[in-house]
Design brief:
22 helices, Hydantoin permease, about 475 residues
Length: about 475
């Protein structure tokens, strides 16, 4: 009794802290309010990737683009590594300043320039909220035998409720799901891998003009884009961590959690895709899984979509505030939930497969150049300026170096995006001239945007680095004086 008493009190205090509604918005988190360790990034990103959208992204590889399972697995491993690396790196941006990545975007893009990616992230979050709400509703609908409307309402309310409580509760839920979801998904994994055709070869008819190289590259791009899209959120879930959180350790936890969850579930989707094309979670019951296993799987899919989509609701709300909208965080959460629910309700009445594919590709096209600008700013441009950075880490006022309107990073981001247009390939929406004449190059748009924006931002800012370093020395002297 004496040994369990203190432990019980600590657990009770931790639960009370995690379930207390968060009052902070996008302002820097003071050092005294920092807590938690890098291990929570593993559970958050692992459980967020164990979900149906990961399954469907993998299924596209075999069922839609004609890859054999081994070819699909290699593409999934590579694409997941790219996306996981982006999440790992951007997770390290949170602890030093105690703010999300979109706030830090103001330095290279300018205060007005940074509002544009913030608005895009807001709408991206609403779109992901809609996608996951549809998938979760299908699962719940199958599980409890109700209509789409009540199932959709149940899923969306649960997602919004978790986001309303905030940062601590999200991490608590994800830690629990990192234990629960593997147990729920183990059955469908064993069945899916053993009953599928893992020796399947390339299907040229399904790949069409893409060919083997084009189909492989497209699967890498889609898989990377799915994880890459969360990189704009990553620092939102590390900004409460102590300033001295080791960046390498944080990167490793975030990368590993993302990569493991993504590869596991996407490769399972690719395996199932060799025997059936699954349009909704309901199809898993009718075409693949036997009764009892189907019930457990529907429960897993319903829970996993809720725990993943609460991130979209939470981070979308922060993006809305960073865009300049004046309201409380909880109000912004309701805006994301309301708009995402409206999109999901109408989209859920039809077939979402082609929209899902295009949605993932479009995400990578604009996020990739933005991420390139942020990485160059952090590791090449701002590296000599860290003494000045440390003086501003917890300053509540905007960074004095932020351009008032548009910074050089905005031009680099925009030009990087424009450079990718000829390579873009969204059939039925837009196909660029290079992608049209060489379909295999249609998966290169995000890579072109990333390289162009990164190189251009470095070229535009490299002459400012000595001046920044000199100023940081002057500032340091003024502080010590």
């Amino acid at each position: 009794m004496t040994s369990s008493g203190p432990l019980a009190r600590r657990l009770s205090a931790a639960v009370r802290s995690a379930t207390t509604v968060e009052t902070s918005g996008v302002e820097p988190i003071p050092a005294d309010d920092r807590e938690g360790g890098p291990g929570s990034s593993f559970t958050l990103w692992f459980s967020s990737n164990v979900q149906f959208s990961s399954l469907t992204s993998g299924m596209l590889a075999t069922a839609a683009f004609g890859l054999g399972w081994t070819q699909a697995l290699l593409a999934i491993v590579l694409g997941s590594a790219v996306g996981a690396a982006a999440i790992g790196i951007t997770s390290t941006f949170g602890p030093p300043k105690g703010v999300g990545l979109l706030v830090q975007t103001r330095l290279p893009l300018g205060r007005r320039g940074a509002a544009i990616p913030a608005v895009l992230v807001f709408f991206k979050a609403c779109a992901w909220f809609a996608v996951n709400s549809i998938l979760g509703a299908f699962a719940v609908q199958t599980l409890i035998g109700t209509g789409f409307g009540p199932a959709f309402a149940l899923v969306t309310v649960a997602q919004v409720a978790i986001a309303l409580v905030g940062y601590g509760f999200i991490h608590l839920v994800q830690k629990a799901m990192a234990l629960v979801l593997p147990l729920l998904f183990i059955g469908v994994s064993l069945y899916g891998y053993t009953e599928s055709d893992l020796g399947s070869g390339f299907d040229a008819a399904r790949a069409g003009p893409l060919g083997l190289a084009g189909a492989f590259a497209l699967v890498v791009a889609i898989q990377a884009a799915r994880a890459l899209s969360f990189s704009s959120y990553a620092a939102d879930y590390t900004r409460y961590m102590p300033v001295d959180t080791p960046p390498r350790t944080l990167f490793l936890y975030a990368f590993t959690g993302t990569w493991l969850g993504s590869v596991w579930i996407a490769s399972l989707g690719a395996a199932i895709g060799t025997i059936a094309f699954i349009g909704t979670p309901t199809d898993l019951v009718g075409q693949v899984l036997p009764g009892a296993l189907a019930t457990v799987t529907m429960l897993a899919l319903g829970v996993s979509t809720v725990t993943s989509s609460c991130l979209d609701c939470y981070s979308g709300a922060l993006a809305w505030l960073i865009a300049g909208v004046r309201m409380a965080r909880w109000q912004a959460v309701l805006v994301v939930g309301g708009l995402g629910s409206a999109i999901g309700w109408f989209a859920g009445q039809g077939d979402y497969w082609k929209s899902f594919e295009n949605f993932l590709i479009v995400l990578g096209n604009w996020i990739a150049p933005w991420l390139a600008v942020m990485l160059v700013q952090r590791f090449l441009v701002a590296a000599p300026d860290r003494a000045h950075d440390s003086a501003l880490d917890l300053a509540p006022a905007p960074d004095e170096r932020e351009p008032r309107n548009f910074g050089p990073g905005f031009a680099a981001w925009l030009i990087g995006l424009l450079a990718a247009v000829p390579f873009m390939s969204q059939p039925g929406v837009f196909v660029g001239p290079i992608a049209e004449s060489h379909p295999a190059l249609g998966a290169c748009a995000a890579a072109v945007a990333f390289l162009t924006a990164g190189l251009l931002h470095y070229a535009l800012t490299r002459n400012r680095r000595p001046r920044a370093a000199h100023r940081s020395t002057d500032t340091s002297k003024e502080i010590h004086a």
